[in-house]
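FORM 7B - TANDEM STRUCTURE REPORT

SECTION 1: FIRST PROTEIN
SEQUENCE AND TOKENS:
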Amino acid sequence: MTAQGIFDPAALGTCISCGFCLPTCPTYQLTGDEAAWPRGRIALMRAIDDGEVDVFDAAAREQGSFCLGCRACEPVCPAGVPYGKLIEQLRVAQWTGRRRPWRIIPLMWFAGSRRLIRMVGRIRRHARTTAASPEHSGDMLMLGCFERALFPAVSRAAVATVPGLTVPRDQGCCGALHAHNGDLARGEELARRLAERPGRIVSTAGGCAAHLAAVVGREKVVDYSEALIERASLPGPILIDGRPARIGLQDSCHLRNGMGVTAAPRTVLAALGDYVEVPGAGECCGAAGTYAILRPTESRQVLAEKITTLTALDLDFLVVVNPGCQRQLISAVRRAHLRTRVVHLAELVAMAENGTVRP
């Protein structure tokens, strides 16, 4: 396929090839390969758009899947290149029909089925406080597709700690999974459908929040930590053996790089104990949506240095704000036999309020 029109020309033309993104790119850090960082990939995209390189060329397909899509390049870019949008557009062209990676097909099918999502959610007992109603007002808690299946306690904790949240039971997927995996149109459609309800959307999943904000506007979407600070008093410190708990944070890449949310989670954690800034907290953990499923070897390579850091810090809690990060880090911490507990921010706040933390 050599036809033009795959990429937004304004976005593609924004890059000035300055190189500021180089030190932020995790795949460049792994390989040292000039092709494996945003400037190199944008040069490839331009060649595809000009018809010089086939979009299904082996090297092009490799870079389309090798990128984590973490968007760490965006905050440091002086030209404001919307790189996340460009990598999504590349995957729309490459991951179509039979060319879509087979490992993500069941995930997209699950996320696209509102009935199946609701059934799994009922079985797993996610938060349920409000019947389906188009008239409800105030902030709505978004139930992430995979969060409600894998970590249903997160939504229950969010409802318990932020007063006044409504939880419509008929809500579907936000579309982030689709947008990041080659079906951008469907991803945007699902986001708009979710945002048709009145009030703001409160998200406990950083990747979902950033996708929603990009489609329907930042004013419509808030992270759980922001809503908590607005609407609730923060609980006192968690004590373990008479001392404040040592607590660190792993940022969600999209929440940090796509929405600029970094201070609010740290403000909450500073109230909960002895907050320890984890070196590299803003760098990707390797989960990156479906990346850990599609490229498990590279995912673990990205994660390796983080686990070395966590071993040295000896934290009581490592807090996450995204279910993909939670799944990735729980598994990694267990493999490393660390005593650190990986929990979502909402879960830790709920534990602090209920006094359920044990040494």
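SECTION 2: SECOND PROTEIN
SEQUENCE AND TOKENS:
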Amino acid sequence: MNCLRFQSIRFALIGFMVMLISAHAFGGVTTISLRSTVRVSGDAPITLGQVSDIEGDQAGLLEGLVIGELLEGEPGQWQQLGIDDLRLRIEGDAGLHAGSVIIDGAGVSVRRSEPGQQTKDAARAEKDEELKPAGPVVRDHIERWVRDRYRIGKDLMRMSFRNLDDAFLDTPTTGRLVEIKEISRRGRTAIRVIVLDNLEVAAEQALIFDVEIFREVLVATGRVNRGTVLDESMVMTERRWVTPDDEAASSTTALGMALSKTINGGQLIQTQHIELPLVIRRGDLISAKSISGSVVVTVRGRAKANARLGETVEIESMNGLSQFRARATGKGRAVILKDGEMS
């Protein structure tokens, strides 16, 4: 009897300890909400609090967690911090309870300035402000024209002009009309700008410059060979500076499609890189249907060429005595064209 009572007390104590451990493990959840883009100074250590909004019991500890070593690129470049890297950094800190930390977001793009750059930028901005004309200048009109053209905000766009155009770009436009005509947009943008003062040409110049847009794009997580059908494990979404000519594919348009060229890890996937996957390959045994009204007849044969969904392929009958054309409708399936039978 005493033995049974002792075992009961023992199990009760064990259960109580498990409850305490569970309460400690699951209580006090801390949430880290990653920002999409962050610019940080290269003069000070980069912390988790600079790239995210943190709420919960461990917020104070996590905000000061240094993550600068995760940025391996050169200062001045945009780099992507993923959830996996941040999770490993948190789990590697013995002072944190990683099990109660939730990370929200796909990742964060970070641009670290060069050491001392912040001071230099501030001094340059102060000097530029002193030299800046009181009113709008040609540069302001071009910037608005580009923003309207691509329907983007000022902080999501950047332009690079030639140094020799600086004087014209700073031409005052107060009380004047500014006409902008696009000459070309192949690679670099080319425009002609005319400044009119009382309908008379006060200044005119052709300009060539680069435009980049900070937008969400699809990139390969590793090398993907040509012809491979894309799935979620092969791609990831991140934000990058791209040109307007970079027709970046989205996950909606790319998943389930095949690559028309081999893509390396980290490379941008564009719409011209994807195509419908092959559903019929040369030599495949094909089940082809001939439809006439409500009558459906199935014929089997071998494909004489490759075909993608919707493409026409020539099929040879199993006895080799006839050939016919059919439209590919799926893997190993086709519908015979009405005028497709050939002797």
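SECTION 3: OBSERVATIONS ON SECOND PROTEIN
The radius of gyration is 31 Å.
Residues 2-26 form the longest helix (25 residues).

SECTION 4: SIGNATURE
Preparer initials: ____
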